[in-house]
Amino acid sequence: MSFPNYTTADTSDGTLDPVSLGQQIVADPLITTDFEGVNTSGDNFTLLFVATPSAAEQSQCDAVVAAHSGLPAYQDNLVAQIKNKRDDDRLENDVLAEYPPSSGNYFSCSTKSQDNWSKLSSLDSRGLVTYPFEVTTNDERGTYTIVDSADLSAIMGTVSTAVFTERALAQTYISAVLAATDETSANLAAQPYLEL
């Protein structure tokens, strides 16, 4: 049984997260009629119950809807998109570390590359790397010869700095999304990074 018709304008911020609203209805101790879900159609939605809720329950449903905000779930989705853009696109393909400076030798900053550098450092700390040690550039067209542990540490520092810089950049957009007060401003906060 549907009860009654609401619109997103009835919620506290004009947004709706049906799953979250459903959980709030179920968790409310004043609403005891068995709840079946939220039925949405565009900006309109209804609450579905197995029977007609009492007048007191209907009033409590109105209060839960009025207090509901779908913005956190919307923000979470945008944050996930930013993190995917950072990890699966930017660090995987776009962000490169040049070492030595102005050399034209560019190295990947992907998660796999970071892991490989970490493993090489671990081997070096156990004395298992023989120098000079040759590594291939990101485009596979060039090589660089690492001369010693200090040189390895310097190249790893360059890669790490590029990664941390990108992560800090992404975090500024994440913070702006989480500070947004509605879906429109959250979108505006996320789009510049998502369009990089």
Descriptive notes:
- The radius of gyration is 26 Å and the shape is elongated.
- A hairpin with a 7-residue loop joins strand 4 and strand 5.
- The strands form 3 sheets. It has a 3-stranded antiparallel sheet with strand order 1-3-2, with helices on one face. Strands 4-5 form a two-stranded antiparallel sheet.
- It is built from 6 helices and 7 strands; from the N terminus they run βαββααββαββαα.
- The model has no long low-confidence stretch (mean pLDDT 95).
- The chain has helices at 18-27, 55-67, 71-94, 111-125, 149-179, 183-194; strands spanning 2-7, 35-41, 44-49, 96-98, 106-108, 133-136, 143-146.
- The chain is an alpha+beta fold and 196 residues long.
- The protein has 2 domains: 2-69, no CATH class; 73-194, no CATH class.
